[in-house]
Amino acid sequence: MRKFVRPKIGRTLIVGSRVYRGREDRRQAYPDAIGVDMLAGRGVDHVLDLEESGAALTLGQFAHIECWSVLEHSRRPWLLAANLEAMLETGGTIHVTVPFAWRVHNFPSDYWRFSKEGVRALFPSIDWRHVMFAQDKLRDNNRTPTLNKDAESGPSWIARTEVLAFGVRT
Question: What is the pTM of this model?
Answer without folding.
Answer: 0.86
